[in-house]
Amino acid sequence: MTGNIVTGSKKEDPAAAPAAGKKNLFDMDRASLERFFEETLGEKKFRAHQVMKWIHHRYVTDFADMTDLGKALRAKLEAHAEVRVPQVIFDKASTDGTHKWLLGMDPKNAIETVYIPDKGRGTLCVSSQVGCALNCQFCSTATQGFNRNLTTAEIIGQVWVAARHLGNVPHQQRRLTNVVMMGMGEPLANFDNVVRAMSIMRDDLGYGLANKRVTLSTAGMVPMIDRLAAESDVSLAVSLHAPFDELRTELVPLNKKYPLDQLMDACVRYARGKKSSVTFEYTLMKGVNDQPQHARALARMMRQFDNAVQMKDAAKVNLIPFNPFPGTRFERPDETAIRSFQKLLNEAGLIAPVRRTRGDDIDAACGQLKGQVMDRTRRQAEFRKQLQAQGVDDAA
Ligand code: SF4
User: Fold this and answer.
1) Active-site residues (predicted)?
2) Active site residue 366
3) Which of 49, 77, 237, 243 qualifies as a cystine partner to 63, CB 3.0-4.6 A?
4) Are 54 and 35 in contact (CB under 8 A)?
């Protein structure tokens, strides 16, 4: 989903070292911003609320334009703080309404953020890391290795860029209704930054999204699922992809550390504690995990989950036909196999929608709503083209 590029941008260099001692306000949720106003600026808490509205509701980043703040406070903010947005290297609109941004995070790293409109909702797929260390075998992100965690500012910056572009006005003109932490990276491996960013997404002074409309997707970091239950209140999605340990360990190596019984127990605890369903993502790969025995075992597992949670439809399954990318050994099953798999789940009483591919024409289709399936070489060529078009040298 991302590249590993050297932009050498001379315009809006995202890598420019933060002005000495200045705090990027994108890094702060309500509680930390209130503290910053009280302890660093010697101001009342409500001033922090005013600034949050300027930033997240009106997309104003220049303190001079925050007209309901006094001159003295604006000067103090100028001295101690900044609002540093990610650099938009380029953005593309698909004919189906999907929109993709390539955002520069530092001179060597860029990530993609994708907006997917659908009936009555607009979902933003947000990244939590540059690259990923978990090495899931069917994921293009995994082939790029792990570079680094994104900061809270870099995570919320993705939401800000998309929301501003969409003309989103929280509580009024809502075009951004859902956020899924399903972009590049394992969100639970960057716990603090992700949780703080999700708090801004759900805050009325931030993007005002309902708890259940912010979804965190994990490959199964069991202890962190429990920590998430204790510290946040969002929807949980789990990248399952196999109903048997041996196969899942092959596809998702993390399964060796946290096998299915431990993972499912953690999901039961989460669902019980939150009194909410858990979504299980299942990427269908031809001849690998798309056979009737897989469907039957998956259905059994989901029914057991419902029983353990003691809630009807506690388990939701999303079927995602694999989107091939260059170099992968996996293939997408044909339509008949996909429908047969779905039918077996339906017959077992499970609702299991097949996720439609969106944004194909702009390479924004998701393999598993994780790891955009763009060939790295092709992507880098595209970066270079875009950068050259902007008159920016590419030192990659
Ligand atoms: S599927 Fe998710 S957790 Fe697995 S390698 Fe890709 S980004 Fe990482």
Assistant:
1) 112, 366
2) yes
3) 77
4) no
Name the residue with the closest Cα to ligand 1, atom 6. 139
Is 267 tagged catalytic? no
Tens of pLDDT, residue by residue over 78-109, are: 999 999 999 999 999 988 889 999 999 988 89
- Helices assigned H by DSSP within the chain: 30-35, 45-52, 71-80, 152-166, 191-202, 222-231, 245-251, 260-274, 292-309, 335-347, 376-389
pLDDT of residue 129: 95
The rounded distance, in Å, linking the Cα atoms of 271 and 229 is 9
Whether residue 179 contacts residue 216, with contact meaning beta carbons closer than 8 Å, is answered with no
pTM of the model: 0.87
Residue 15 has pLDDT above 60, yes or no: no
**Per-residue pLDDT, 99:** 95
**Ligand 1 pocket, CB under 6 A:** 132, 134-136, 139, 141-142, 184-186, 219, 239, 368, 370-371
Rounded CA gap, 91 and 116, in Å? 14
Domains of the chain, CATH where assigned: 25-82 (1.10.150.530), 87-387 (3.20.20.70)
